[in-house]
Amino acid sequence: MTYPMNLVSPAWLAAHLDDKRVVVADCRFALANPSQGRQHYQTAHIPGAYYLDLNQDLSNPAQPHGGRHPLPDIQRFSQRLTAMGVTSAAQGDADVAPTWVVAYDDSRFAFAARLWWLLKYLGHDRVAVLDGGWQGWVQAGYPVSQDGPRPKTGQFVPCPKPAMVVDRHGVSHRKDSPGILLIDSRSPERYRGDVEPIDPVAGHIPGATNYFWQDVSSPGGWMRSPTDLAQHWAGLDAAQSVMVYCGSGVTACVNLLAQTLAGKPMGQLYVGGWSDWCTSPEYEPR
Question: Which domains does the chain have, with CATH numbers?
């Protein structure tokens, strides 16, 4: 049986809902209303899906520095995945089939891509996001449920890949070097500093180029074609190294996902993003 990498259609997921090797994760969330995603999940979700909360599951609590959404504690997050029935590709038991994880949201991949990236970071490549998200699933007429998922047990053994991340000091020291491309994934308005609805300072990291994360998908939440994405990311071909950030390491993951779908090498994630940079002692105005 063939399992697609990185992106699956609603039709594919509907055909594999009963596959024991597939675990579905509902990642719906709203930054302005943190309880909204869980409420929507309780109202209706894809049958068998587990709910993962951006603040409680996909992040650690924010500290004075480090950004609004630090990476989750690896042990705690791994235990959560194990309890969802996820078995890692790195757990070493040849008799146990690794699990495919399919993540979805209703925000054009904003939060599903965070889970996608986290699993890649922890050495689990068998992960994809649902094209079209929740809306695409419902509009296609596939079933929904209010029931909680059945208890499962997995074996998730994390194998972190530290080369996939870069911190504030790394960005500061490398951003002006030849061949370095620093990407700001936020909206053009936030990048220019015209508005700043979340963080205490407006602007962007000096030297950053703006690639708005929503430009890789349609308003309905469908990813652009690989050909369109390859054209969109053509500027990466001349870069020796790419670093990507947003406000707090969440929507930047959509750009990282799109780079992968375009057949480009995935850049490093500056997890702290603008929320870390603009509150740091080394802060540089734009």
Answer: 6-160 (3.40.250.10), 163-277 (3.40.250.10)
Full-model pTM: 0.96
Mean of pLDDT over the chain? 94
Q: Which two tokens stand for residue 185?
A: 């994934």
> 94 forms bridges with which residues in the sheet?
none
115 touches 58 (CB < 8 A): yes
pLDDT tens digits along 195-215 = 999 999 999 999 999 999 999
- From the list 272, 238, 74, 264, the residue with the least C-alpha distance to 170 is 272
| Three-state SS annotation for the chain | CCCCCEEECHHHHHHCCCCCCEEEEECCCCCCCCCHHHHHHHHCECCCCEECCCCCCCCCCCCCCCCCCCCCCHHHHHHHHHHCCCCCCCCCCCCCCCCEEEEECCCCCCCHHHHHHHHHHCCCCCEEEECCHHHHHHHCCCCCECCCCCCCCCCCCCCCCHHHEECHHHHHHHCCCCCEEEEECCCHHHHHCCCCCCCCCCCCCCCCEECCHHHHECCCCCECCHHHHHHHCHHHHHCCEEEEECCCCCCHHHHHHHHHHCCCCCCEEECCHHHHHCCCCCCCCC
Token pair of 89 as six digits: 């590709």
Cite the active site residues: 246
